[in-house]
Amino acid sequence: MMLAREQQSQLKHTPLHALHVASGGKMVPFAGYDMPVQFAAGVLREHLHTRERAGLFDVSHMGQIALRPKSGRLEDAAAALERLVPQDIVKLAPGRQRYAQFTNRDGGILDDLMVANFGSHIFVVVNAACKAADETHLRAHLSDVCEIEPLAERALLALQGPKAESVLAKLCADAPAMRFMDAGPRRVDGIDCFVSRSGYTGEDGFEISVPAEQAERLAKALLADDEVLPIGLGARDSLRLEAGLCLYGHDIDTTTTPVEGALQWSIQKSRRAGGERAGGFPGADRILLQLAEGSPRRRVGLRPEGRAPVREATSLFADATSSERIGTVTSGGFGPSLNAPIAVGYVPADKAAIGNTVFAELRGQRLPLRIAPMPFVPNTYKR
Amino acid sequence: MTTLYTTDHEWLRIEGDTATIGVTDYAQSQLGDVVFVELPKTGRSLKKGEAAAVIESVKAASDVYAPLSGEVLEVNEAVASEPALVNSDAAGKAWFFKMKIADRSELGGLMDEAAYKARTA
To answer: Architecture of A296-383 per CATH?
Structure first.
């Protein structure tokens, strides 16, 4: 069998790199960084441990950017950011966070991101592979109103799972009072951090932005708790897939709109047709039309029959014999908590109903997949 | 009984004109938790180098190539129903299939244990 060879050249390190190596992390290249794909426990146990107890993830490769209003008025920065995303940022309350997308003029998605109102400024977290382009995009469109400040000297940790709250409470007395998507400055183990109650696993949990030089000390303090295991990118991917969450560059990209990507829940009424600040973002014509009339294709959850995983890029067909391809799998693998294969892909709107069956071409055979609701595993957010 | 190895991380146990085939412990350690194994059909005639079986971890799928040419005599249903056997006992209970050796000269290109160990050290 073919085993992948790893390319080590020119890879960047996060502030936790030395700790990952010392903890037995199996390092692989990801978005230009040398990152742990798994630790000694392995993907399966790391996944299950996060669902049952708590897992610590290093997501420092992601981009953290502050948008500071030149006027000193947060509402100016919020209104400016609404030029680039179809979300309501103006009404995002201080101390709250929201999921958003940068769109292009065709309504495609340039990146997906988290946006938080920190009172004096807006804090955004973007994908590692897109962060340079996002920064350029923000400077090009918001420099009249905002200082764009990449926070390169900060690490980002995610503590996820049912024990995340009790573990973090020992280092941050304010943590238990936070609700899902609360976000703001908090002291954690005496360190000035930005904490949000959010994540990428479908579990309750927290994301902690910490100054780079304090990151290893904080990670060690969290890992010292018996409930916590270090978790690699492998389990991060299987956890987010079970939670039905999109992976940028795979499930959504510049060719998919938020409506096609089944992300219309993230577009508030105020930005839709008839809303007080309708449109006004790139691709608004197409996205508002799709919100009203539906999109020709849709991202759906897929449950393959049997136990064989159906992977990314696998073609989908309407029936067991037709040669006409109707769609593609964009993420697929094995869901350890379901003990079954799961996948996500795009199908035409008329094939997207829950319970409908489509077929994948797998090693020369047609395998039935049932359209299934997402998340595949119920989320446990503390709302 | 001789055990031989391929550069693709398969082992072959040679008994008379039959070869039992599995993947090595090194391969399973690199793959991680195995969640799915697809075996060839008994009676299938394999050509050396063609994809004969599939092994999938949570992360990725890998092909297992036929290390020799010949007919599939028997497959190990236990490993298909319990893929984690590959992680716990790659060189033993997790054998994949047995095949009839059609051309003994193909054995010449395989490694012995010492050569394989040196390669994966």
So the answer is: Beta Barrel (2.40)
B38 min Cα distance to partner chain A (Å): 8
Question: In which band, very low, low, confident or very high, does the pLDDT at A106 lie, cut at 50, 70 and 90?
Answer: very high
pLDDT value, residue A8:
54
Q: Hey, where are the domains in chain A?
A: 17-61+153-242, 296-383
Alpha-carbon distance of B82 to A300, in angstroms, equals: 29
C-alpha to C-alpha distance for A255 and A167, rounded to whole angstroms:
41
**Counting one residue from A and one from B, how many pairs have CB atoms under 8 Å apart?**
63
| Phi, psi angles (nearest 5°) of residue A147 | -85, 130
Is A273 in contact with A291 (CB distance < 8 Å)? Answer: yes
Q: CATH: 1.10.287.1770, 3.30.1360.120, 3.40.190.10, 1.10.1670.10. Which one for A17-61+153-242? A: 3.30.1360.120
Average pLDDT of the segment spanning A40-69: 97
Domains of chain B listed by start with CATH number: 2-120 (2.40.50.100)
Mean pLDDT of all residues in A334-355: 97
Q: Do A37 and B55 touch (CB under 8 A)?
A: no
Contact A44 B35 (CB under 8 A): yes
User: Which residue is closest to A238 within chain B, CA to CA?
Assistant: B58
Nearest to B58 among A1, A43, A308 (CB): A43
Q: What is the pTM for the complete model shown? A: 0.94
Alpha carbon A314 to chain centroid distance?
22
- How much is the pLDDT for A10? 87
Q: Cβ–Cβ of A42/B33 closer than 8 Å?
A: yes
pLDDT tens-digit series, residues A211-221:
999 999 999 99
Q: How many residues does chain B have?
A: 121
ipTM for this prediction: 0.86
Q: How far apart, in whole angstroms, are the C-alpha atoms of residue B99 and residue B72? A: 4
Min Cα separation A75/chain B (Å): 43
Between B23, B36, B59, which is nearest A1 by CB? B23
Phi/psi-derived region of residue A313, left when phi > 0, alpha when psi is between -120 and 50, beta in every other case:
left
Q: What is the pLDDT of residues A6-25, one digit of tens each?
A: 455 689 999 999 999 999 99
CA pair distance A359, A361, nearest whole angstrom? 7
pLDDT in tens, A125-181: 999 999 999 999 999 999 999 999 999 999 999 999 999 999 999 999 999 999 999
| DSSP H or E run through B118 | helix B113-120
